[in-house]
């Protein structure tokens, strides 16, 4: 039988493991947490959820970054509510992570510029979609993507980097010898954590 992981009965190590997995998710496109689900609340107070690519996880700042089109539903919902949550489950590590808190769209600042500069050309193309994401079109292919460099560059106007400042973090590790669930809330520069019944 494989030994229990070192974090199994170590609350602080569980938090470190959560951030390690999130960082790995942002760095490697085959990692379990590369494509978490993003939850927002719409104008009617109803939950909406969809996949995003995790671009950065900063354990020191306690922030997560993803990118979206500022014309999209998620961008409008984040701008209106100011909050978002992310969720992922990695079958390889048998870990579920839930993270939520205030979310901010960066469109015209240095952070957005750096995120755009750091994006691959094939990612930038998506921001030049015409008409806007979510528009009703007469056929499935009734939209266009930019084809030349100038048109792709113009997509910068539609680009947003979103920073979620994690205020609540939850970790669930599945093991038949004993599941482990732990949660933390941000308290200034520190995190207050507790074991939870799975
Ligand atoms: C694997 C995968 C990765 C995706 N990554 C992103 C992303 O990083 N940003 C994004 O805005 N949409 C991404 N999408 C598309 C969204 O899930 C969603 O369908 C779309 O953005 C419309 O969402 P909205 O109308 O709620 O804004 C991704 C979808 C998949 C399947």
Give the topology:
Blueprint: H1 11-27, E1 37-41, E2 47-51, E3 56-58, E4 63-69, H2 73-81, E5 83-90, E6 95-106, H3 110-117, H4 121-124, H5 149-154, E7 159-165, E8 168-173, E9 180-187, E10 190-196
Antiparallel strand pairs: 1-2, 1-5, 3-4, 4-7, 5-6, 6-7, 6-8, 8-9, 9-10
Bound molecules: flavin mononucleotide.
Flavin mononucleotide (FMN) binds at residues 35, 48, 50-53, 66-69, 72-74, 133-134.
Protein name: Pyridoxine/pyridoxamine 5'-phosphate oxidase
Domain Pyridoxamine 5'-phosphate oxidase Alr4036 family FMN-binding: 22-106
Cofactor: FMN
Care to describe what's here?
It is a single chain. With 198 residues, the protein is of the alpha+beta class. The chain has one domain: Roll (Pnp Oxidase, Chain A). It contains 5 helices and 10 strands; from the N terminus they run H-E-E-E-E-H-E-E-H-H-H-E-E-E-E. Strands 1, 2, 3, 4, 5, 6, 7, 8, 9 and 10 form a 10-stranded antiparallel β-sheet that branches. The protein starts with 10 loop residues before the first helix and ends with a strand. The model has no long low-confidence stretch (mean pLDDT 97). Bound molecules: flavin mononucleotide. Flavin mononucleotide (FMN) binds next to strand 2, strand 4 and helix 2. The site of flavin mononucleotide has 15 residues, from strand 2, strand 4 and helix 2. InterPro entries: Pyridox_Oxase, Pyridox_Oxase_Alr4036_FMN-bd, Split_barrel_FMN-bd. Keywords: Flavoprotein, FMN, Oxidoreductase.
